[in-house]
Write a structure and sequence with these properties.
Blueprint (H helix, E strand, L loop, with lengths): L1 H14 L6 E7 L4 H11 L5 E8 L5 H8 L4 E3 L11 H13 L4 E4 L8 H6 L4 E5 L11 H8 L3 E8 L9 E8 L6 H24 L12 E3 L8
Parallel strand pairs: 1-2, 1-4, 2-3, 4-5, 7-8
Antiparallel strand pairs: 5-6, 6-7
Helix pairs in contact: 2-7
Length: 231
């Protein structure tokens, strides 16, 4: 019913030469701070969009309650017996809910599970992920500790289109931070997380305004440690 209403609404808007807002679905596994940044970005007019549904693979994810406090529909959906990936039929359940809410773009915001064909084929070039490193460096987990152990001078975060390769896909935006001599993984993570919030909102702002798409993106937007990220 929601999907039918959205289709009709968009046909009417197209006839009037107008554009509808971006309908955003978010996948989370934990505290939901990136999710909250996106919701706030929409409510503050920084993103021409609306978070219409949030789904978690963790029944105890704090982000579910945060989403509900903002009036966003939020669900826990059992992902299957595997720790890091979906059972295929369970992934299709995620697709079913996202389709029910007529989602245009899916954001993996701290979603700690590998996605597969159901999500990628159902939302082609429309699933984005935030990762706490300057990809292609340091894909996977525990990036802050690994960066410190490697003696890197810079660290950061990346928003990218998701594909079948874990933390692969076309890079949209990156933000760098300086690694300090007395950094701990926890302190470094805090500074990177602050940048994550900003580049997720910036990315979705540009997508919602039609300024970025998978097809038109030639090269990533990269912010240095001292650059302001203005939305």
């Amino acid at each position: 019913m929601i999907r039918l209403w959205v289709v009709i609404k968009r046909k009417i808007l197209a006839l009037l030469g107008l554009r509808d807002y971006l309908r955003i679905g978010i996948l989370i596994s934990g505290r939901g701070s990136n999710m909250e940044a996106i919701i706030r970005g929409c409510k503050e007019g920084k993103i021409y969009g609306k978070v219409v549904v949030v789904i978690s693979d963790n029944p105890n994810a704090r982000g579910l309650e945060i989403a509900r406090k903002y009036g966003v529909r939020a669900f826990y959906v059992y992902p299957g017996k595997y720790r890091a990936k979906f059972e295929e039929d369970r992934e299709w359940e995620y697709v079913k809910i996202l389709k029910k809410y007529a989602v245009d773009i899916v954001v993996m915001a701290g979603f700690m599970r590998i996605i597969g064909k159901p999500l990628l084929s159902s939302f082609p070039n429309s699933v984005i992920n935030i990762h706490p490193s300057l990809l292609p460096k340091y894909p996977g987990l525990d990036t802050h500790r690994r960066v410190l152990e490697a003696g890197e001078e810079e660290h950061g975060c990346t928003v990218h289109f998701a594909n079948e390769i874990v933390d692969g896909g076309k890079i949209i935006m990156q933000a760098k931070v300086k690694v300090l001599s007395d950094d701990t993984p926890e302190e470094l993570a805090k500074r990177v997380l602050a940048k994550e919030h900003k580049i997720l909102v910036k990315t979705l702002s540009l997508i919602s305004e039609g300024k970025i798409s998978y097809e038109t993106l030639d090269s990533p937007i990269v912010y240095g440690p001292d650059d302001d990220i203005v939305v």
